[in-house]
Amino acid sequence: MLQITGLSKSFGDNHAVDGIDLTVRTGSFYGIVGPNGAGKTTTLSMVTGLLRPDAGSVLVHDIDVWAKPAAAKRVMGVLPDRLRLFDRLTGAQLLYYSGVLRGLDTDTVRSRSADLVSAFGLEEAVNRLVADYSAGMTKKIALACAMIHSPRLLVLDEPFESVDPVSAANLVEILQRYVGAGGTVVLSSHGMDMIERVCDSVAVIIQGKVLASGTLDEVRRGQRLEDRFVELAGGRKVAEGMEWLHSFSD
Ligand SMILES: Nc1ncnc2c1ncn2[C@@H]1O[C@H](COP(=O)(O)OP(=O)(O)OP(=O)(O)O)[C@@H](O)[C@H]1O
């Protein structure tokens, strides 16, 4: 479903993404993990046609994202990292806009919107302006917008961030049923337990490179994913020298 080859992006001297290769098969629930600044968002932005790569290629369902962006975007539903939504619309209007933009007819948009609003528990919020939503509610309406055109591939950058545990469990269930029906999910997250519970495959990206990828068992090698991640990331930093914080200087 997704084939990333030699993907690279630099910002000045910073090699944010440095020759990444990844293969995500159809029907996979694929997790991308990595420390802050590792290059996850930069990678996913290039995969989804939001950021032009310096080098490399991205094929989504055999369509080259950068040669045929419109065709490739039809196949994908995207939750970007920084949510730039038309937030002077209500949730209902934003869903309507997303559906119609994706070529759905009005009746289909209305019935899918109702399903999504109920699945994400947004009934109380749907007629209010998105600008007034909490962070978690904003994430949920953006997720609903990403799904409305029933794409083959969902690319979700930190979908669980700011989302409460009950809503996160709902989202996991929605995504698991989607994958069960043949959909493919690629998501980034810092929630190792969540990734370990729901993903069948995982890639660990550190300093713009894939240090490990494959099935969950291949990557964690008998350890907890979190321990393997810390090992790959070069261990934890011991917090030294912060004694001033305990001096309560008032
Ligand atoms: N538009 C930009 N201009 C300059 N540098 C950028 C830009 N976008 C990202 N970077 C840099 O690229 C590197 C990778 O950033 P990226 O956002 O991809 O990391 P990330 O793995 O998603 O991190 P996090 O887990 O904190 O979200 C960082 O060093 C970041 O400062």
TrEMBL record:
What are the record's GO terms for cellular component?
Answer: plasma membrane
PROSITE patterns the record matches: ABC_TRANSPORTER_2
Which part of the chain is the ABC transporter domain? 2-232
- How is this protein named in the record? ABC transporter ATP-binding protein
Q: Which GO terms describe its molecular function?
A: ATP binding; ATP hydrolysis activity
Any GO BP: response to antibiotic
Q: Which organism is it from?
A: Orlajensenia flava
Q: Which UniProt keywords apply?
A: Antibiotic resistance, ATP-binding, Nucleotide-binding, Transport
Q: How does it sit in the membrane?
A: Peripheral membrane protein
CDD domains membership: ABC_DR_subfamily_A
| Localization per Swiss-Prot or TrEMBL | Cell membrane
